[in-house]
Write a structure and sequence with these properties.
binds zinc ion; 15 strands; 6-stranded mixed sheet; about 280 residues; Metallo-beta-lactamase, Chain A; 7-stranded mixed sheet
């Protein structure tokens, strides 16, 4: 997979899978067939599957290598996890994500830091793996950086995702809880982008004059560039989600910030550009 150079930092996608998952109308209340129609031709086939009409959405991580650290941003769905939905994510046995990480020249021992934009099932699955019937950290030498608000909210709910993907990290004393604007160093820092979840963060990378931002699930689909008010039905706070997304798009539109999306179709990375009253994406 292509390695993107940002000053002294490299960024690389580690893809778990890229398949048609949801119909736009299952994801966004506003996305009726008529409302999607003006965008259908330009989004088919890369973002909308021509056979099923479902949105093509990868699940992926970003591997960031700085001069000092090997960093993983988001850890996909993982294997043998019990997830309520979608059914494709439940009890996966396919370890292709781990193979893809190894193909990038990185072993599980090599990761220094794991960041999660938020703690939903497709962003923290490979935090842990099953060994002799116990969930243990997949990356034994890593510090896992969790936004404190996100961690506490998940801890309060105490459902299976927290029990399997997060609690074992704390038990292994590898969890570090931080504020929403935490900076690891001059190259890597968090930005609060709440709305999709209680403590959602974007993760910024800067090196020399190059900048990138990993936006997690503050935006899910290129449909939301044309329609920034369309908000995922399952977002924690719909109004905050829309406000966060519009602020992010406004700030990075027509700039040199490389936006590294979680779920836009391959190559998933590009620049936000203005298009009339809304936005479009110049894929790398
Ligand atoms: Zn997601």
């Amino acid at each position: 997979m292509a390695v993107v150079q940002l000053g002294d930092v490299t960024v690389q996608r580690i893809v778990e899978h890229e398949i048609p998952v949801y119909h736009p109308s299952e994801f966004f209340d506003e996305a009726t067939a008529e409302a999607v129609e003006p965008y259908r031709a330009s989004l088919t086939p890369h973002a909308l599957c021509p056979q099923t009409g479902r949105m093509v959405m990868p699940v992926q991580s970003y591997l960031v290598r700085t001069r000092h650290h090997c960093i993983l941003i988001d850890t996909c769905v993982g294997c043998r996890k019990n997830y309520a939905e979608p059914p494709e994510w439940h009890q996966r046995s396919n370890e292709v994500w781990l193979s893809n990480l190894q193909a990038a020249g990185v072993g599980t021992d090599d990761i220094d830091y794991v960041f999660c934009t938020h703690l939903h099932s497709d962003h923290c699955g490979w935090n842990t793996r099953l060994v002799d019937g116990r969930w243990v950290p997949t990356f034994p030498n890593a510090k896992y950086i969790f936004a404190r608000d996100e961690y506490r909210a998940m801890e309060d709910e105490y459902h299976q995702i927290f029990i399997d993907n997060v609690e074992p990290i704390a038990e292994a004393k590898q969890a570090v809880l931080v504020e929403l604007d935490y900076a690891l160093d001059d190259d890597i820092w968090l930005e609060p982008t709440v709305g999709h979840s209680v403590g959602h963060v974007a993760i910024h990378v800067k090196s020399r004059r190059s900048r990138a931002a990993m936006c997690g699930d503050l935006i899910h689909s290129p449909l939301q560039l044309a329609e920034p008010d369309w908000t995922c039905n399952s977002d924690y706070d719909l109004a905050a989600s829309a406000a966060t997304r519009k602020r992010f798009l406004r700030e990075h539109c027509d700039t040199d910030t490389l936006v590294l999306t979680a779920h836009f179709p391959s190559p998933s990375m590009g620049h936000v550009i203005s298009r009339g009253d809304a936005y479009d994406f110049n894929y790398l």
